[in-house]
Amino acid sequence: MTKVNITLNGQAVQVESGKTVLEAAQAVGIDIPTFCHDPELSKAGACRMCVVEVAGARNLPASCTTPVTEGMVIETESDRVINARKSILKLTWAGHPQDCLTCEKTGSCKLQDYSYRYDVDGSPYKGEVKEIPLDDTNPFFFRDLNKCILCGKCVRKCHEVNGAGAIDFMYRGFGTKVTTAFDDAIEESSCVFCGMCVDICPVGALTPKQGLNQGRAWEADKVLTTCPYCGSGCTFYLHVRDDKIVGVTPNFEGPMDGHLCVKGRFGWDFVDSPDRLKTPLIKKDGEFVEATWEEAMDLIASKFEGVRAQFGADAIAGLSSARTTNEENYLFQKLLRSMGTNNVDHCARL
Amino acid sequence: MSVCRNLDKLARTVIELAIKLHFIIWKRRLDTLKEVLKCYDEDPFDYGPADEILVKYQGQKGTMIPILQGIQEAYGYLPRQALEHTAKQLKVPFSRIFGVATFYAQFHLTPRGKNIIRVCQGTACHVRGAAKILAAMKEQLNLEVGGTSEDMKFTLESVACIGACGLAPVMMINNDTFGRLTPDKLADILKEF
Amino acid sequence: MEQRRILLCAGTGCISSGALKARDALLDELNKRGIADQFEIVSSGCHGFCEQGPLFVIHPEDIFYCRVQAEDIPELVEEYLINGRVVDRLLYMDPITNEHIKNHMEIGFYAKQNRRVLHNCGVIDPENIDEYLGSEGYVGLKNALHMEQVAIIDEMKKSGLRGRGGAGFPTGMKWDFTYKAKGKKKYIVCNADEGDPGAFMDRSVLEGDPHAVIEGMAIAAYAIGADEGYVYVRAEYPLAIKRLRLAITAANERGFLGNNILGTTFNFNLKIKEGAGAFVCGEETALLASIEGERGMPRPRPPFPANSGLWGKPTCLNNVETFANVPLIYRIGAEEYGKVGTERSKGTKVFALTGKINNTGLAEVPMGIPMREIIFDIGGGVQHGKKFKAVQIGGPSGGCLPEEQLDLPVDYDSLTAAGAMMGSGGLVVMDEDTCMVDLARYFLTFTQSESCGKCTPCREGTKRMLEILERITQGQGEPADIDALEELAESIKDSSLCGLGQTAPNPVLSTLRYFRHEYEEHIVEGKCRAGACSNLVTYHIDSENCIGCTVCAKNCPVNAITGERKQPHEIDQAACIKCGVCFEKCKFDAVKLK
Predict the structure, then answer these.
(1) Of C432, C427, C435, whose CA–CA distance to C383 is shortest?
(2) Is residue B171 situated within a structural domain?
């Protein structure tokens, strides 16, 4: 890989050619703000938050789409750059509800963070404000399009990563909005509720319903765990507050790059369900009674032995589960075969 | 795809025939058949023109816009059923087609009037008083830009330059151009339609 | 006896003025008199002088009749074609000297032009390839096919041709980049999405000389190694599309397009893509997205289309007028071509003259001539003897030039330095009745409604700028508004994604530069000196002057004027839509503007 020499904020840096200015800056610890950039998605260059000043360029190019070239001299926080970013923030606020006090996104909102960083306290521009009704028609998340800043990450995630293609940009200009065809309810679209759009939304336009009003982002402990729903091994962070799960965020560094499905993303309310079994139950005199694992295992072993003695090993069959890992499934067939039967099957065959 | 549709037509004919010959069928079966027939009646949309256009562009690249233009020409607007059908046939997300259809000014999602009035708002027309022409036209028709009269007779639109700058201010009604307009001329012109 | 040739303009402008009806009347009349065989009637492309349409030019004597309607035909045939007596009333009348002018090259509008790109427009039948061939058509292509690809590109660089679509990028460099780009499959694309309101030169070239564009594209394709091309035309130009389609078919039949062109191994297939109504598709990356069937939203550059364009393949995009210049360069050579124009802006440029000007139409002039000559010598000055105020050049992306800038040479660099830009070459002339704040508002309305909505500064910024301008023109402006406009304008220019956004604030910045006092008058005094901002003016009837003739009341489109016959009339201010008809119709100076 050839290297190019650039100057970033006065610092001489060597970067692999083909990298963008944003990547080069990130590599040396310079933070450039972005709304629409996501390393996994195609480059949009739409929000213009990441503009930088490049010596000799007429305009301020977006660092997320501009490749480094030999001898490039870049300023990431010059007055001109800061003015442009402030202007973008002010323009964004001109149409954005100012309800941070009650917004679920407070504390993990990029608009809020950057406004703090660049000392922007709202918008001096008065004029038309969007008034799109809040959409709470699906069971998993709210859509508040008045808060949407049209960065388009959800659209690209939906088309490029998930493939469901449920949403896209509609109309144009100031009237642009991200929604389904004919503005149908999300449930009637091709959405599979993977929730990836919710996870990458930089503002409060898409927020999960679960965990609502149960604490700010900074109040929860984040516990890295592996999803128990299937053998794929997706990892994510459970947000835990007072021993209760109040949220889920994907682990973008994990083996699945932070991709989740509807079950892993939204289906964790069973954890604290009062109906959840916490010990084995054994039926005694027609009633289920709590038992220890030793008791349960002994009972199962004795029943298997009884069946095998009376009817032979082929009277036993084992059905494994898709919620277990490959290794567990392997051990499961070992177990069955050690019992003398080859009757082993698995529910996931589609 | 047209084969499928022909089969559908055939199936429908068979069911209709069966109902006519109901004396040889059980009463319960007859009701079921009537239910099935209702499904056909609920979607009386004529997919024929859309299919013809889709066949014409089969296997070519970058055909979305010509297909939408063809559909609009055939139906007068872009009916939802035709768009859904196109999405399925092209294996493109429905959302993407809708996104394209709402991006371009040429496409319309609702039926339009019999006569399309397009008042030019190009620069040359603007400096020669196009805004006054448009205001007077709105008043005359009691319509906003983009609106269609209740009797479906007129749709009022504005257009950014039709290139007849020498005749500014101008408007087009269907394919006829009317130039050197003044607000007082409009009523007489509209009478012709 | 040799046939006499009657050229009638069948461009969109003249057709709108009734050219086809006049043509049919002429055919009828000639048939009726049994003399049809003495005349060859040619429907040509645009002659450029749209103001005076429909136009008839009769050869060999080159007599020029204008505003010929169907009802004038019997007289024209009887008097002139048969008896040889010139019909004075159908001749062009000079607006200043009031003299009738017979020959078309004596008319000021044509005399000062140098028609190179337009040399076939209005002269040949664009639907007949033989007429193009008779006018040295496809000679440039034949010459180019005998040259090495690199030599063709070098010749283009030497010619100094710069893109005629707006930015003025050197064409030779663009070809070179695409030629050098890696990849076997390459495309040539012609940008015929002429969206600037007030510009119609590309339409006229396509309507009047489509083969010139095809030939230019074929030469470019051969030079860069492309075998497929697209012409992206606005759907609003049905006649241009029709003529181009006919021309492509004819060129395919004669071997100027298709496989093994002129017996060589060079293949080039050309297709038409119709636009669907989006100004932003004039931006090259948005245009490519549109051809691919996507929303016409610009894509970030780099990668530039020369490296990764249509379907990710190297693509060379030029506009119609640029391609129409190409055949000439390979016919007469780059050196000869470069003798016209200035050092850094070579050749000619076609301008569309519109607005409050006497001679609306298309004028092709050498680069570098002063703006004053275009407006006053070719354009015949301002209509109705009013005072010139400014000229808007470059459409919604450009800026305006006031009286004191009129001696500026018209070339890419001088215009940019003066805060305007060449753009596609639309010139809109404004007089004292045009309000410059309203003009800025008009352009922002346009760019706002044509913004694709992708990037924040353009989508949100033009909206807020427009809202401020609307407030000012409605008399609700505040002193801080001018600063806010300037601040927004700078950041939109600086940080927008594509050319549309980067240039959208130009009309505001240039009107602020030259006409700041008009903004201040609106804000501070609540006054619109041009009387164009309807919220700042009201119409009243002066009872002293009004004789009760009822003309105003009869003509009022909303019946806002009442009054007895022979009694002073009154205007109901609530019903009045301020269209100004009463003001124009009153012969007694009784309607007053306040």
Answers:
(1) C432
(2) yes
Beta strands in A91-182 (DSSP E): 141-143, 168-170, 177-179
Of B61, B69, B166, the CB nearest to C360: B166
- Greater confidence (A50 vs C112) lies with A50
Nearest one of C380, C318, C538 to C49, comparing CA atoms? C380
- What was the pLDDT predicted at B41? 61
Which residue from A minimizes the CA distance to B93?
A: A165
pLDDT of residue B37: 67
Which residues of C lie inside 8 Å of A (Cβ-Cβ)?
A: 278, 295, 297, 299-300, 302, 448-457, 459-461, 463-464, 467-468, 484, 487-488, 490-491, 493-497, 502
Question: Around Cβ C102, how many Cβ atoms within 10 Å?
Answer: 15
Q: pLDDT tens digits, residue range B48-97?
A: 999 999 999 998 989 999 999 999 999 999 999 999 999 999 999 999 99
Nearest residue in chain B measured CA to CA from A164: B93
**Mean per-residue pLDDT for A22-35?**
97
The answer to whether C66 touches C91, Cβ cutoff 8 Å, is yes
- Pairwise CA distance, residues C410 & C349, whole Å: 9
Give the model's confidence band at B30: pLDDT under 50 very low, under 70 low, under 90 confident, else very high. Answer: low
Q: Which residues of C touch A65 (CB under 8 A)?
A: 300, 302
Question: Is A83 a domain residue?
Answer: no
Which secondary-structure segment (H or E) carries A208? strand A206-208
Retrieve residue C283's tokens.
């931006």
Q: Choose the mutation target among A156, A161, A162, A168 for the interface with B, i.e. most B CBs under 10 Å.
A: A168
Of C532 and A338, the one with more pLDDT: A338
CA–CA distance, A191 with A180 (Å, rounded to integer)? 9
Q: What is the pLDDT of residue B100?
A: 97
Cβ burial, residue B158 (10 Å; 0-12/13-18/19+): buried
Find, in chain C, the residue whose alpha carbon is nearest to that of B105: C277
CATH of the domain at A40: 3.10.20.740
The number of folded domains in chain B is: 2
Q: How far is C544 from chain A (nearest CA, A)?
A: 44
Is it true that the peptide bond before C370 is cis, omega within 30 degrees of 0?
no
> From B97, which residue of chain C is nearest by alpha-carbon distance?
C294
Strand order in the sheet with C63-65: C39-44, C4-9, C56-59, C63-65
Distance, in Å, from the CA atom of C244 to the CA atom of C131, rounded to the nearest integer, reads 15
Query: What is the value of pTM for the model shown?
Result: 0.89
Give the whole-angstrom CA distance, residue C590 versus residue C594: 12
> Tell me, what's the pLDDT at B49?
94
For residue B2, is it within any domain?
A: no
Rg (CA), chain C: 26
Residue B1 covered by a domain: no
Flag if A91 and C502 touch (Cβ within 8 Å): no
Q: Is B54 on the interface with C (CB under 8 A)?
A: no
Domains contained in chain C, CATH given: 4-111 (3.40.30.10), 129-337 (3.40.50.11540), 358-431 (3.10.20.600), 436-525 (1.20.1440.230), 538-593 (3.30.70.20)
All residues of chain B having their beta carbon less than 8 Å from the beta carbon of residue C13 are: 163-167
Give the integer Cα–Cα distance in Å for B101 and C278. 12
Q: Does B68 touch chain A if contact means CB atoms closer than 8 Å?
A: no
Domain that holds residue B169: 115-191
A189 interfaces chain B, CB cutoff of 8 Å: yes
Residue A117: inside a domain: yes
- Closest-approach residue (CA) in chain A for B79: A182
